[in-house]
């Protein structure tokens, strides 16, 4: 069941999996956790995002007004996204999109459409119709973090437009896995312990790479798939850690990548000491500042230090390979 292969000169643990088509198990009915309900993520399933209602459009206009964004987009055009936040889950994608929406030249679909992984059979026109209207010079965006780990997503996005700009928010894969587990635990309190899911065998310390919380963090493997369809110049890798510690600095890089004027800056942020996350300062016309939801900053469970160290050792060669591929050292080791 376990196998080993060479990655960048290192002998690395790998598991031979049969259903490699969707790395995040988006189409597999296999249970990700014992006692968890089967996921209904198949293409064409009933949870497809609906086209925006008039109430939603009105609400978006009010939000736009409160942020000083022009509301004349009613007369704009629905376009395919020129930029997509494709990953990663629990990396900071929601924060990035919220911060980007401050910019008057960015218009984003609010929910995660999951078009290129779950609902591709609905067709490109269905997808385009989900998007907000934009004026010339504005950028249409969406974010669906599971795209990064979906094997078919790169070819499908390239079929739409091979010039699409791709943003990947990455984070230390160990803390990302813990955050992923914490989120699932909050919804399923009867989950087994983190260590029992992360390790195949506690005595050998072999990592279970069939667990999605572990597999998502193999950034180098996922990126290899994307680079078959898009050049590296089409990607921006955003540090999830720096998005928290220096949101304005990281947002400067994002705005440059998108060809936008640097509008989002230090003046838009303050640090919430209680949550440990940056918040957006009170927008004009709003009675309070905008912070991320209650789920952000939830306490993580206690995990044995030896389990965390085993994970760090496991990820190290993959991290180094990712640094080489992306041209950035994220300092996770």
Topology diagram in text:
Blueprint: E1 2-7, E2 10-15, H1 54-66, E3 77-78, E4 83-87, H2 93-100, E5 106-108, H3 124-130, E6 133-134, E7 139-143, H4 153-160, E8 165-170, H5 173-187, H6 194-198, E9 199-201, E10 206-207, H7 212-215, H8 219-226, E11 235-239, H9 240-245, H10 247-257, E12 269-272, E13 277-280, H11 305-326
Parallel strand pairs: 4-7, 4-8, 5-7, 8-11
Antiparallel strand pairs: 1-2, 3-6, 9-10, 12-13
Helix pairs in contact: 8-11
Outline of the structure:
This protein has helices spanning 54-66, 93-100, 124-130, 153-160, 173-187, 194-198, 212-215, 219-226, 240-245, 247-257, 305-326, and strands spanning 2-7, 10-15, 77-78, 83-87, 106-108, 133-134, 139-143, 165-170, 199-201, 206-207, 235-239, 269-272, 277-280. It is an alpha/beta fold. The strands form 5 sheets. Strands 5-7-4-8-11 form a 5-stranded parallel sheet. Strands 1-2 form a two-stranded antiparallel sheet.
> What is the overall shape?
globular
Total discrete domains = 1
Contiguous helical run count: 11
Biggest sheet layout: 5 strands, parallel
Sequence of strands across the biggest β-sheet: 5-7-4-8-11
CATH domain class: Alpha Beta
Domain Sulfotransferase: 81-316
Keywords: Disulfide bond, Glycoprotein, Golgi apparatus, Membrane, Signal-anchor, Transferase, Transmembrane, Transmembrane helix
EC number: 2.8.2.-
GO molecular function: [heparan sulfate]-glucosamine 3-sulfotransferase activity
Could you list some keywords that capture this structure?
single chain; 333 residues; alpha/beta; Rossmann fold; five-stranded parallel β-sheet; two-stranded antiparallel sheet; 13 strands; 32% helix; globular; disordered N terminus
């Amino acid at each position: 069941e376990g196998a080993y292969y060479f990655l960048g000169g290192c002998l690395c643990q790998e598991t031979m999996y049969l259903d490699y088509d969707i790395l995040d198990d988006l189409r597999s009915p296999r249970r990700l956790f014992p006692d968890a309900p089967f996921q209904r993520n198949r293409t064409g399933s009933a949870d497809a995002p609906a086209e925006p209602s008039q109430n939603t459009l009105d609400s978006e206009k009010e939000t736009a007004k409160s942020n000083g964004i022009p509301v004349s987009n009613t007369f704009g055009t629905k376009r395919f996204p020129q930029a997509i936040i494709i990953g990663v889950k629990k990396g900071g994608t929601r924060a990035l999109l919220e911060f980007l929406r401050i910019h008057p030249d960015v218009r984003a679909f609010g929910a995660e459409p999951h078009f290129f992984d779950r609902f591709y059979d609905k067709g490109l026109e269905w997808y385009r119709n989900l998007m907000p209207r934009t004026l010339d010079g504005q950028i249409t965006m969406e974010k669906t973090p599971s795209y990064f780990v979906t094997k078919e997503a790169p070819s499908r996005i390239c079929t739409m437009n091979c010039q699409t700009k791709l943003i990947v928010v990455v984070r230390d894969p160990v803390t990302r896995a813990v955050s992923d587990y914490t989120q699932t635990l909050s919804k399923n309190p009867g989950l087994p312990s983190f260590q029992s899911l992360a390790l195949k065998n506690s005595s050998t310390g072999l990592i279970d790479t069939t667990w999605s919380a572990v597999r998502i963090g193999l950034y180098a493997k996922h990126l290899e798939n994307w680079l078959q369809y898009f050049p590296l110049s089409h990607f921006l890798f955003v540090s999830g850690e720096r998005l928290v510690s220096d949101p304005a600095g990281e947002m400067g890089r994002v705005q440059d990548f998108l060809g936008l004027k640097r509008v989002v800056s230090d003046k838009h942020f303050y640090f919430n000491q209680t949550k440990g996350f940056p918040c957006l300062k009170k927008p004009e016309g709003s009675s309070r500042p905008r912070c991320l939801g209650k789920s952000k900053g939830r306490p993580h469970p206690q995990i044995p230090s030896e389990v965390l160290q085993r994970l760090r050792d496991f990820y190290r060669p993959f991290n180094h390979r990712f640094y080489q591929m992306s041209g950035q050292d994220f300092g996770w080791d």
